[in-house]
Write a structure and sequence with these properties.
Strands 9-10-11-19-17-16-12-20 form an 8-stranded mixed beta barrel. A two-stranded antiparallel sheet has the order 1-2. Strand 10 and strand 11 (312-323) form a beta hairpin. The longest helix has 20 residues, at 165-184. The chain has helices at residues 32-50, 59-73, 86-92, 165-184, 188-201, 206-223, 247-253, 260-266, 408-417; strands at residues 12-14, 20-22, 115-118, 124-127, 142-144, 150-152, 236-240, 280-284, 288-293, 298-306, 312-323, 331-335, 341-342, 346-347, 354-355, 367-373, 385-387, 398-400, 404-406, 424-428. The protein is α+β, with helices and mostly antiparallel strands. The chain is globular and about 60 Å long.
Length: 429
């Protein structure tokens, strides 16, 4: 079977209309460049015919004029589109009438994208994306140096520096001077107020506090522990004894929150059974509180009344003895109900040895004030108290079984001031 290429083809071709026409021989294009050359020559001829005649022109001048015309009529191109190469160069050399207009892609600016987020008021507001602003480092100012040069100075900080010790000492000294001035005028209430404020301001200075404790204790002997009732003292008042009164009843009915023996003490009454009707006495209203400082073997006594800045008034200090091997527990305590005893009997929990009331060998002395812990750390501590001692050498040492020991005169005064229903005791490291 003959292949399609070997079949003889007729010299004429018949269309569907039945009309025959001679066959046209197809010319093969061997060199595409020839076509371009022909087109270029033709274009050059058209250009030459359309050029106005101005006389003979030298080839050099003609070439220069063509170059200037090309520059004048060429569009302002700032870039070349992808894929444009030599063919574009040839097209640019064609006459203006034969060239289609060149349209370059216009570079549009990037669109500004805005994000939409829900505002705190519940509305949807179009806002710019939350961008952390760049940290702007302030440029240091220049200030003249001693040599006349400029050097950077540190920018002022927005946070004020903490008060220096010098400033603190100055404020304390100002209060001390104020107290000294009031004391010189015999204005004891004003002096106490100034010294007491200085005492709290000097919390970080043990030596300053020790000095101020001495000043305040001296004033307390005149204001608090004397029979004189100063009109400006908020703790003090006067009372006229009526028929049938006794000191215990007066203390209860006037809600003084002190033991009746304290009224006897400050009024210097030798026999409480021999008070008389119409007698004028001084009353002092409590409660009073205590802080035990274990590191210094010291108890500080405070009134519930406060100074002009709301600080409890310091009255005086006492030396104390503490439990052996640090066994005195820390924390917040109150006086145990119905625990205060005069001339108490006592049984040694270690040996079982018992001591009766008024026994001169009773180790806990003649006063006992039981205390209960109120913190989670000391609520389960039982049997602790503040009491006297028959061993004065144990004061300032760790020799008890955990209780706070005091000399006999000191525990008598503390017994009268630490009462149920208002007294608080704080034992600190």
């Amino acid at each position: 079977m003959a292949l399609p290429s070997q079949v003889a083809r007729p010299t004429t071709g018949r269309l569907t209309s039945g009309i025959s026409r001679p066959r046209v021989r197809t010319m093969s294009v061997r060199r595409p460049l020839t076509v371009l050359v022909v087109l270029a020559v033709a274009a050059g001829g058209v250009w030459a015919l359309s050029r106005p005649s101005k006389g003979p022109v030298s080839p050099r001048a003609e070439k220069q004029a063509a170059s200037n015309a090309s520059k004048k009529n060429a569009p302002a191109v700032t870039g070349m589109a992808p894929g444009v190469g030599k063919l574009a160069d040839l097209a640019n050399n064609a006459p203006e009438s034969a060239k289609p207009p060149v349209v370059l892609p216009k570079r549009e600016p990037a669109p500004v994208v805005e994000m939409t987020q829900k505002s705190s008021l519940g509305a949807s507001d179009a806002v710019k994306p939350a961008v952390t602003p760049p940290v702007s480092t302030p440029q240091p100012e220049s200030q003249p140096s001693p040599e006349g040069m400029t050097q950077p100075s540190t920018a002022p900080t927005t946070t004020p520096p903490p008060p220096t010790s010098t400033t603190r000492l100055a404020s304390i000294q100002t209060l001390v001077d104020e107290g000294d001035s009031a004391l010189a005028r015999n204005a004891l209430i004003d002096a106490r107020d100034a010294y007491n404020r200085a005492y709290y301001a000097a919390a970080g200075s043990p030596s300053d506090q020790e000095t101020l404790r001495g000043k305040l204790a001296s004033i307390a002997e005149k204001i608090t522990f004397s029979p004189v009732a100063y009109p400006d003292d908020r703790m003090a008042s006067t009372y006229i004894i009526a028929g049938g009164d006794n000191l215990n009843r007066i203390s209860r009915e006037q809600d003084l929150k002190v033991d009746w023996r304290f009224i006897q003490r400050i009024n210097q009454i030798s026999d409480p059974r021999r008070i008389r009707e119409g007698q004028k006495i001084k009353l002092l209203k409590g409660p009073f509180h205590a802080i035990v400082d274990k590191s210094d073997f010291r108890m500080d006594l405070f009134a519930d009344a406060t100074d002009s800045q709301g600080n409890h008034l310091f009255l005086r200090s006492f030396r104390v003895g503490l439990g052996e091997a640090g066994s005195t527990p820390l924390g917040h305590w109150v006086v145990r109900p119905q625990s205060k005893l005069v001339d108490p009997a006592w049984v040694n929990p270690r040996t079982g040895e018992s001591f009766t009331a008024d026994d001169p060998l009773n180790p806990i002395g003649e006063r006992w004030v039981g205390i209960d812990g109120v913190d989670d750390s000391n609520r389960d501590k039982m049997g602790f108290g503040i009491h006297g001692t028959i061993d004065p050498d144990s004061i300032g040492k760790e020799m008890s079984m955990g209780c706070v020991r005091m000399d006999a005169p000191d525990i008598e005064l503390v017994y009268e001031l630490l009462v149920e229903g208002g007294t608080e005791i704080e034992i600190q490291p």
